[in-house]
Structures are given as structure tokens and as C-alpha cells.
């Protein structure tokens, strides 16, 4: 019976930690809270509000969100229009133009093969 009680409290701690972590809260802190308070800690983890700033920052770091260049709100990476300000988001790939050396009549074939490969 005691093992079942300890397992139940541990399970409540794990679930509390996972739920809180998904809401942008400290997973370890909520694990401890859920383990100490059992089902009450689990209920608290379920009703606590999201830390919206932490959730958005995490999504930004994962690459699933980006900032609108006009209003600086977080929007989905695939968005072509900002849902906050309505601005069109033109997101071209961030690649710099590639400069390709062109063979001049003054350059020899050895230089061309060395810099351009076997052509």
C-alpha cells in the first residue's frame, strides 16, 4: 500500500512537471510541487496560466516562430501576412548572392581549373 502511495505521488509529480513545462514554467519545480502535494499539485499545474513570453521565446529558438519586421510580434514561420498588423511578410531565403569568377581572356586554363573545378 505504501509503495502504491509513493508511486502515485511520483506520477503526480512527473505529470505536473510535464504539464508545467509545456506551459513555459519550470518543469523541475513543478515536479517537486506535484510530488509533495500529489493530486493537488497536479490540479494546480493544470490550472496555472501559460507563461506566454517563455512559450514564444522557445518557439522562436526552435524556428517555428519569427518576429514580424513591422510590429515585432511573434508569428508562424510559414506566415505570409502578419495576423497582428496585417502587413505582408516577404520572406526570401537569407542567402547572399554568390559571386562566380568569370574567366577572362587574360587568365590561363590552369587558374580556371584551380578555382572553378574541372570544366
Automatic annotation (TrEMBL):
Domain of life where this protein originates: Bacteria
Residue segments, region Disordered: 100-119
Keywords carried by this UniProt record: Membrane, Transmembrane, Transmembrane helix
Domain Putative zinc-ribbon positions: 64-89
Transmembrane regions: 30-48
UniProt xrefs under InterPro entries: Znf_ribbon (IPR059113)
Protein name as catalogued: Putative zinc-ribbon domain-containing protein
Organism taxonomic ancestry: Bacteria, Pseudomonadati, Pseudomonadota, Gammaproteobacteria, Candidatus Competibacteraceae
